[in-house]
């Protein structure tokens, strides 16, 4: 058995504790550049910008589906008439509910919900079919959330689906059904476990605490290796719950564990949340290098500018209600995102080389919320027409447009228009020194050719020239639409007029 239990020296531990106070799992601005590199022993295990088949496929996904499902689907974000809006914790965090609004002996009540978990309406094939119709290319599925309840019959705990009335392996059904539909599967795995007596979220101080947590570490390793063995079709892990000091202290263990997981499953994709370096730096090590295959900090948000990403792969995971991951019975009185909102976010994301992952929270019977069914159909209807601008595309390198978002695939440029111009002229700004410019244009939805002309506006010191795509006078749209342009060599240069004397 590999010994993963060496912990930090006191001096490094102090540094990690200091760093841990300021390290966040998410961010909303560009990262500060590291001014001076230092020696980091527990930095990235793999080179940046992998080019193997699995990672290149990841870059083509465009749209994914996240599913949060577990015991928390039974309460559905409320208990005995008290919802998160009246004091309860959020759906998937509801076990942490405390204070005057919490039911008596609530944690014990929650921990025994497995005795009634019997989702008779669950059909993984229906889920997978819906996801395919929506246009999802990959799934992230919660094999185990923070409550510690495993949706597969793990050999390493009794707190699993096998002990429920349902009994059957949910993870296997999901992996098999989605794989059969051609959708890649990633498993969400929470390190944090509220139900596990060996888990501690604090700094480990005594030999007894360290010995106890070492048992938890070995248990975690066993479960992850078990998942790889049981479901070899999976493409990666999406880790969560890695922010506590106990895990941050265990950097030697996590470094070796990542190495072992990659050796057991060549091509495995792991996001930046899994571990930290010896100085407590999460997501990125102390030199600013990504600790994983892609940047995993964009949760319910996106970078404002492409340059913030500095060329890194990334995904954005997004909810439909404001912060609803697990099932929410009641959507009334809160804003829930429309298909227009979500398509806008999708195209913003893929225009910056990211994948957009939309979350669904099935109920305790295994059925999607009716609102999710409606959105899945509307998004799918749009994707069927406009998917060419979504899948396998890259950042176009043009200045952002007020009309929508650019994506590019080889010599095809796409502009997904959300703001239809009142004069029906879709104007594209292209740098004057560009070797490729729009030479043809069509409406993607029906292939109709569109008039295209160069327009030299004549702004002083302007570095761009402009190409106008003219929409038909009768054109109207009630959803975003895509203008597809073929790129080619410019046919001429702008006339040089007299410059103003200033």
Average pLDDT figure: 92
Largest sheet: 8 strands, parallel
Quick one: how many beta strands?
17
Low-confidence stretches: 1-23
What is the rounded distance between the termini? 77 Å
What is the gyration radius calculated from CA atoms? 25 Å
Apparent shape: globular
| Strand arrangement across the biggest beta sheet | 7-6-5-4-1-10-9-8
Percent in strands: 15-25%
> Roughly what percent helix?
10-25%
Order of helices and strands: HHEEEHHEHEHEHHEEEHEHEEEEEEE
InterPro entries: FUC_metazoa-typ, GH, Glyco_hydro_29, Glyco_hydro_29_N, Glyco_hydro_b
Pfam families: Alpha_L_fucos
Function: Alpha-L-fucosidase is responsible for hydrolyzing the alpha-1,6-linked fucose joined to the reducing-end N-acetylglucosamine of the carbohydrate moieties of glycoproteins.
Organism: Sphingobacterium zeae
């Amino acid at each position: 058995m590999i010994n993963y239990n060496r912990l930090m020296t006191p001096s490094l531990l102090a540094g990690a504790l200091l760093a841990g106070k300021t390290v966040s799992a998410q961010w909303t601005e560009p990262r500060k550049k590291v001014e001076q590199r230092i020696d980091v022993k527990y930095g990235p295990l793999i080179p940046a910008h992998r080019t193997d088949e699995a990672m290149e496929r990841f870059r083509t996904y465009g749209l994914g589906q996240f599913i949060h499902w577990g015991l928390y689907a039974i309460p559905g974000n409320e208990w005995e008439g008290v919802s998160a809006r009246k004091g309860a914790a959020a759906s998937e965090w509801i076990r942490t509910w405390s204070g005057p609004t919490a039911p008596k002996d609530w944690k014990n009540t929650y921990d025994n919900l497995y005795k009634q978990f019997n989702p008779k309406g669950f059909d993984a094939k229906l889920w997978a079919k819906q996801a395919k119709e929506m246009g999802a290319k990959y799934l992230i599925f919660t094999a185990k959330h923070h409550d510690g309840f495993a949706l597969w019959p793990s050999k390493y705990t009794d707190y699993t689906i096998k002990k429920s009335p349902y009994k059957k392996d949910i993870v296997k059904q999901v992996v098999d059904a989605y794989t059969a539909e051609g959708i890649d599967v990633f498993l969400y795995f929470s390190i944090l476990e509220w139900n596990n007596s060996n888990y501690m979220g604090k700094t480990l101080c005594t030999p007894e605490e360290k010995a106890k947590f070492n048992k938890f570490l070995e248990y975690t390793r066993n479960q992850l290796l078990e998942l790889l063995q049981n479901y070899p079709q999976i493409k990666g892990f999406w880790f969560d719950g890695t922010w506590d000091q106990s895990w941050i202290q265990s950097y030697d263990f996590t470094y070796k564990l990542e190495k072992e997981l990659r050796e057991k499953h060549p091509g495995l994709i792991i996001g930046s949340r899994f571990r930290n370096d010896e100085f407590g730096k999460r997501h990125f090590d102390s030199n600013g290098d990504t600790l994983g295959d892609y940047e995993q900090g964009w949760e319910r948000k996106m970078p404002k500018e492409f340059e913030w990403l500095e060329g890194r792969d990334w995904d954005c995971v997004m909810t439909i209600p404001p912060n609803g991951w697990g099932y929410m019975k009641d959507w009334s009185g809160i804003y829930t995102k429309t298909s227009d909102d979500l398509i806008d976010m999708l195209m913003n994301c893929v225009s910056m080389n990211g994948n957009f992952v939309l979350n669904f929270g099935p109920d305790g019977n295994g059925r999607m919320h009716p609102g999710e069914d409606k959105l899945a159909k509307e998004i799918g209807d749009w994707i069927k027409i406009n998917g060419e601008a979504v899948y396998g595309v890259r950042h176009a390198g043009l200045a952002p447009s007020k009309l929508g978002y650019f994506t590019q695939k080889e010599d095809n440029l796409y502009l997904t228009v959300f703001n239809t111009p009142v004069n029906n002229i879709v104007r594209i700004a292209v740098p004057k020194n560009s070797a490729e410019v729009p030479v043809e244009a069509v409406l993607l939805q029906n292939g109709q050719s569109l008039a295209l002309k160069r327009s030299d506006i004549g702004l002083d010191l302007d570095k761009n020239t402009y190409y106008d795509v003219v929409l038909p006078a009768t054109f109207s749209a009630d959803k975003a639409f895509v203008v597809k342009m073929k790129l080619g060599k410019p046919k001429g240069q702008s006339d040089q007029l007299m410059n103003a004397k200033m």
